[in-house]
Design brief:
Strand 1 and strand 2 form a beta hairpin. It contains two helices and five strands. With about 170 residues, the chain is of the alpha+beta class.
């Protein structure tokens, strides 16, 4: 009787099952890592906008207005070149760079060239509009800047059941 080399059907099924389990674990890990990266990018955007609003206030003694009801005003007021009159008699002007140099992927519409004269909303890592409110409801002496998070719904209150928003009125943990 000769011995045949090879695998039995049971051995093949076990190997396939192990491979499928490993693939499922890798996919789960990739999803977790991607979600974390999206939250970190959104936290960075919110922090940058919050810091930009504070810089604007330090320079002009007011926060950027909120007449458009979303983050378009932040794109305009923080993204436009700043002009300062040095001398009222001679009207000598100097320009300074914008408070924030917006990249196209931070703006609605994707990788477009940002145009502060035609402002578009700032978007989070999921491509959803970042919201802006002046005066702030949660930051009583400041402004509110937030993203509605992965689920796209504003919960705003950290005690809400499905809270996943990224907000500037809570300490952002690193």
């Amino acid at each position: 009787m000769s011995e045949r080399g090879g695998f039995t059907l049971v051995e093949m099924i076990i190997v396939i099952a192990v491979i499928l389990i490993l693939v499922a674990l890798m996919i789960g890990l990739i999803v977790v890592i991607t979600d974390k990266a999206y939250y970190q990018k959104t936290e960075s955007i919110i922090k940058m906008l919050d810091d930009g609003c504070k810089t604007y206030r330090a320079e002009y003694n007011v926060y950027p207005p909120n007449d458009k009801g979303d983050s378009r005003n932040l794109h305009f007021y923080l993204g436009v070149e700043r002009i300062k009159l040095l001398d009222k008699d001679t009207n000598i002007k100097t320009t300074r760079p914008p408070i924030i140099e917006f990249k196209g992927d931070m703006l609605e519409g994707g990788k477009t060239v940002p145009d502060p004269k035609n402002p578009v909303p700032v978007v989070d890592a999921w491509g959803q509009k970042v919201q802006y409110k002046n005066p702030g409801q949660w930051n009583k002496k400041h402004v509110d800047v937030w993203s509605s998070g992965k689920n796209g719904r504003d919960e705003l209150d950290p005690a809400a059941k499905d809270f996943d928003d990224v907000v500037n009125w809570m300490k952002i943990e690193g």
